[in-house]
Amino acid sequence: MKARVRGIYTTALTQLLLDDGHEVVQASPPIRRRFDDHDADLSARPADVDVATTDDRQGVGLSGDHEAVETVRDVCTGVGIDSFAWDDPAPRGAVFDGVVTQTLGSGAVVDLGDSEGFLPFNEYDGYVDAGDVVRVQVHEPTAPWDSDRAGLSGTMVVHDGLVELSRGRDGVSANVRGERATELVRTTDILPQEVPDGWGVRWQRAAADAPMAALGDALAVVAERADELDATLADAGGDPDDAPATLVEPEATAWVWFGRECRFGLDEVRRAVEATMPGHHRIKAAHRAASTAVDFVEAVCPDADGEFPFQAVSEQFGPMGGDRIAISHGKPEGRLIVLGRGDVVDYDPAGQVTVERQMSGGGTYDALGVEREDGDTAVTKLKEGRWWYPTVYRDSDGERKGTYVNICTPVELFPDAARYVDLHVDVVKHVDGTVERVDDDELDEAVAAGHVSEPLAEKARSVAAAVERALE
After folding, report:
1. What is the largest CA-CA distance in the chain?
2. Whole-angstrom Cα distance, residue 324 to residue 345?
3. Residue 46 predicted with pLDDT over 80
4. What pLDDT, on a 0 to 100 scale, did the predictor assign at position 97?
């Protein structure tokens, strides 16, 4: 498979893909330099799959040929026990007859069947109102743990990383600066591949480094995809009573979430290629500005080793005492639930924070079976890298109402949130001292559904057993 890789995990994933017998194409100059002596052809050629770090830097999104996405997803999930992967029901390039469910200030929410998308008004030719059936294409898929909807457009597009064709747009342009842009536009006229009628050409930045043969190959690939899309849509859908309906899925999209152990595993892979400080990917995932700091450290101290410098990272970027952070509770099926935000009331430079939240009344505390009342507090101790964390609930008078220990993937203390994925099974300690282990059945169901691997489930059961013994 030929993969185009971008983002903070690029060096490590490039090494893993090459080791697995795949090709990496359209590589950036730093990647070409790092792999100069690896006998790898990283030139600008059409890609089967795009691998890109998510905007929140927690994982990667894969889009491209169905088989290529599946193959590369397996490579990505093999980096650590706390990786998770999900197929996207609204993959890049998919075309739907969707139903508008509501209009907002700048666009419309569209029901796609198994998911929703957002259609900006300026991306659709015509009036849009609730109840309308619209033909749209997914241009920007969204990770399942992200609160945003997939980005939609009424314009049909096909691309491969070097060149993009857009239906209904004329002419040739280039997303490149300087004389190379003019050269690319002129080169289009002498390439053997003709552009399908009704499609406009836009060369991408990676095309600036591509030889003419690669440009011709890329244009031939997208031209064939454009013809296939035209033919498919000519005979597809059209009956409003059938909407929402999927008309074509020329590509697949999958999402891979990396946990803490994955990030340190990727560090080891990267270290075989380039100087890599302890916690390289963990630090870069925590804060966008941290990338520059990490690159500087590795440039001036290429032999840096030792433990992950939690104190230095937290003092620079957070969290620290007095900060306010969220508890971002990931679910194995891909959802992200924010359990609330609290104040960091205690900070340990060894890698632990204590977060206090004020609770509102209503309902009961899970598994504890006690009422949730106004004035209650929840005090949570979160330690970097630990597979569990406890929360003690107290009433307005400070009397304990119970302790809930969540079993999860290793906690990561990022500047604005503690992040992990919940592993269902938990342990509670009631006020009378009774210790109870709960939700083993939910973990079993998650394994059966393919959301949790058996090795990860066994780790969760082992941690729960140890916590249960410690509380008794």
Report:
1. 82
2. 9
3. yes
4. 96
